Amino acid sequence: MRIAMVGTGYVGLVSGTCFAEFGINVVGVDKDESKISRLLNGEIPIYEPGLDDLVEKQVKSNRLSFTTDLKEAMEGADAVFIGVGTPARRDNGHADMQYVYAAAKEIAQVMEGYTLIVTKSTVPVGTAREINKIVSEVVEARGDSTIEFDIASNPEFLREGAAIEDFMRPDRVVIGVDTERAAEVMKRLYRPLYINETPMVIVSPETAETIKYAANAFLAVKITFINEIANLCEKTGANVQEVAKGMGYDGRIGSKFLHAGPGYGGSCFPKDTLALTQIGETFGAKQQIVETVVKVNDERQKSMARKVIAACGGSVKGKKIGVLGLSFKPNTDDMREAPSLQIIPVLQEHGANISVHDPIAMNEAKKLLSDLEWCDEPYAVAKDADALVIITEWNEFRALSLEKLSEIMKEKRLIDLRNIYKPEEMKERGFHYVSIGRREVLLTSDS
Q1: Of 279, 298, 317, which marks where a domain is finished?
Q2: Alpha-carbon distance 316 to 320, whole Å?
Q3: Among this protein's residues, is 268 annotated catalytic?
Q4: The pTM is what?
Q5: Of residues 233, 268, 312, 375, which has the active-site annotation?
Q6: Per-residue pLDDT tens for 184-208?
Q7: Which pLDDT score, from 0 to 100, does residue 219 have?
Q8: Is residue 439 domain-resident?
Q9: Pick from 149, 179, 203: which residue ends a domain?
Q10: Could you please report the per-residue DSSP string of 161-222?
Q11: Contact, 272 vs 213, CB < 8 A?
Q12: What is the extent of the structural domain holding 344?
């Protein structure tokens, strides 16, 4: 089989490469000539563990290629996937659909015979119908009676940092179609997963589009809920990690996404929760729980800066604050909606001098943050610091030498926004230790 993947960003490149691993011939197409040129030269424009090796493998096998020519990419294709961006519009939070609709129109202008057009991008409910309308108008204008098409919705559920594993071994595959012909093409594309008995949820396009938003919104609710419980634990003396563990054993709840922290970020949850609230407004079905989650998460990130200031005695003016981790999560350089983008500027506004380190995201962070000391490793960040703040739980930060930190820090103060360390250990080492939803460990007079 052969497919064209329109868009070589995160979704398009990962999905296309993984389809090639399934044995399908894939042509990635993008208008950005510089991006295609880099891909043709073996350069990967995004960071995702293992993707560079997999792209190289599939290119060498001649199952994966790249071009700027859409017509060339579509020749002989069994399906054309749309994997372009749908960023939230700044004015109202609605998903910006201009790239999706432009791709649909361009596909319609060059397609021949029967074509299955599949949306892989995260799109609002009703997008498949709108694409059908756009394509129908172009086909009618072309006056070619041999052109037939179907529209399908096939949302992605890829976690940054684990995207290849998620594609190759998914919990389920969601396929939204109106015809059996389209369903059969999609089943053939995902045949390797059928062999592995991966659940295939074959529904209408509207249902598939809703599943994507509903799933991400529910996970955002779980994150926000446990963060609210963490606030309660800090007041009552309870331990949020133990609370989450006790909750997670309940099969109706589950343990995943019950990890208290500085709030969710990234390319999906902030955008998709906001989009779902706007979809609810459009259809007259307000999503009040999700609306509240959006507001609470925004405040959550800002409150983390206040937490740092409080841990420093109520003022950070003139103090050196070391920050470990800038990306919104480990194993990615994605800075979109990262908590660090909220926390660091507030600390700077209050007069703090900030030193930072992130294993991967430094280059992306430099585009968004300024007046920082950029360090090559964690201990340079901690040297002479009045406080050290962990924002992202990279593995590199999980086993720092507390003895070395004791020697090089001005004050033995650690604010752990990911609950990496144990309060008992920090107390034994004489640290002032502040975490999320757990008792604060104060410095003792003999520390």
Answers
A1: 298
A2: 8
A3: yes
A4: 0.91
A5: 268
A6: 999 999 999 988 789 999 999 999 9
A7: 97
A8: no
A9: 203
A10: TSHHHHHHS-S-EEEE-SSHHHHHHHHHHTHHHHHTT--EEEE-HHHHHHHHHHHHHHHHHH
A11: yes
A12: 300-434
